[in-house]
Write a structure and sequence with these properties.
- With 374 residues, the protein is of the alpha+beta class.
- The chain has five domains: 99 residues, no CATH class; 67 residues, no CATH class; 40 residues, no CATH class; 39 residues, no CATH class; 85 residues, no CATH class.
- The chain contains four helices and 23 strands.
- A five-stranded antiparallel β-sheet has the order 10-11-12-13-14, with no helix packed on it. It has a four-stranded mixed β-sheet with strand order 6-7-8-9, with no helix packed on it.
- The protein is rod-shaped, with a radius of gyration of 49 Å.
Length: 374
């Protein structure tokens, strides 16, 4: 009761402190129970109005309670200062320099300054999380062996799951030390890869890498242009080039639907700068030369073929070596021409067989005549 009376007196004294009717600069129950601070006597239980060294020429209010101070409203303790100087708001048992039980609102900055390698810190705690679950997250402004960075550290209750999870370096680079989901908190890692970036969307999802000019993306569409598919490509009007090893361009896809392998400037639907090995090549072709065996076909004479070869140094209808070296050759077209020449050759052989058969008959007839004369 004495403390309550003293506190009430102190409040009243504060109210009238600047009045000329104040009879003393201290309110206390026991003026002899005191201590010295700033070269001034201060009662262990009471309120004093001295000239303070931090405000020369002005007075400050000093309030003291030997074992602590409690402030009440409506019969309930609202603010407490314990004997160690710890302040509690909403609690009479503060565990830190400032313990607040309840919400807080700050219309201004909150500063945490610790000038060591870990730096100022902010911790978020949940003691209901046990075992390997993270019961404390702490944000540090680190330096020295930790690197110059703002780091988000996790601490599990059993300390088996501890370390930096998210890093924002002073030089502008960032790092996330774990799987990352965008659009989802349930990351799909059924294969158990060591790191996964999961970009999830409802029906459509895109991972975009771009400059001010070029856009390159990885896309997934449940349906787009009537097709359900995953896509990789450019959104801007630029070719897509696949590389293997830095600077080693392997394949190029152009905006006019051409593909180059070993070249970034394909001139055909598929341009390959190098050898091709395959088990089968299927070429669809029109104008297949079955017409050579038609009765209306005019088979060139062997004399005309011989004359053409003497002048041009290659078969009629076939491209010359110079043309092939310059332009290459159409595989299907050359196959068609070769078949035509084989069919013509077959007709020549049939004609020769007929001529040989006629000669054989004549030879046999002459031989019998000679034998009969003998």
């Amino acid at each position: 009761m004495k403390k309550i009376i003293a506190f009430c007196c102190a409040i009243l004294w504060c109210y009238y402190a600047n009045s000329q009717t104040v009879l003393a600069d201290v309110v206390t129950l026991n003026p002899n129970d005191k201590f010295t601070y700033d070269n001034k006597d201060m009662p262990h239980y009471g309120l004093k109005w001295p000239v303070d060294s931090w405000q020369p020429g002005g007075n400050s209010a000093w309030l003291s309670g030997y074992s602590g101070i409690k402030m009440f409203t409506n019969g309930q303790p609202r603010v407490a200062i314990d004997i160690s100087g710890r302040v509690g708001i909403g609690t009479t048992n503060p565990g830190f320099k400032l313990s607040v039980v309840g919400d807080g609102y700050f219309n201004g900055h909150i500063y945490s300054e610790i000038n060591n390698n870990e730096g100022g810190a902010l911790s978020l705690m949940n003691t209901l999380k046990t075992g390997a679950n993270v019961s404390r997250w702490t944000i540090y402004n680190m330096t020295s062996q930790y690197g110059n960075a703002l780091k988000f550290w996790k601490y599990s209750a059993d300390l088996t799951n501890t370390g930096a999870q998210f890093i924002l370096k002073d030089n502008g680079t960032s790092a996330f030390m774990g799987d990352l989901g965008i659009g989802t908190e349930f990351i799909d890692n059924t294969q158990g890869w060591s790191r996964v970036l999961d970009v999830a969307g409802d029906g459509h999802a895109k991972l975009l890498v771009r400059t001010s000019v070029i856009k390159t993306g990885i896309f997934s569409h449940d349906t787009w242009n009537g097709i359900a598919a995953g896509r990789i490509g450019t959104e801007s009007a630029h070719p897509l080039i696949l590389t293997a090893g830095f600077g080693n361009d392997v394949m190029c896809l152009t905006t006019d639907s051409k593909v180059g392998i070993g070249t970034t400037t394909p001139s055909e639907k598929l341009s390959v700068n190098g050898n091709i090995r395959t088990r089968k090549v299927i070429v669809t072709q029109t104008g297949w030369p079955d017409y050579v065996f038609d009765s209306s076909y005019q088979l060139p004479s062997l004399d005309s073929v011989s004359s053409f070869i003497q002048v041009n140094k290659h078969l009629p209808d076939m491209p010359s070596a110079a043309v092939v070296e310059r332009d290459g050759h159409d595989l299907g077209e050359v196959q068609k021409l070769l078949l035509k020449k084989m069919e013509e050759m077959t007709l020549y052989m049939i004609e020769l067989k007929k001529e040989n058969e006629t000669l054989r008959v004549k030879v046999e007839t002459l031989t019998r005549k000679v034998e009969n004369k003998e």
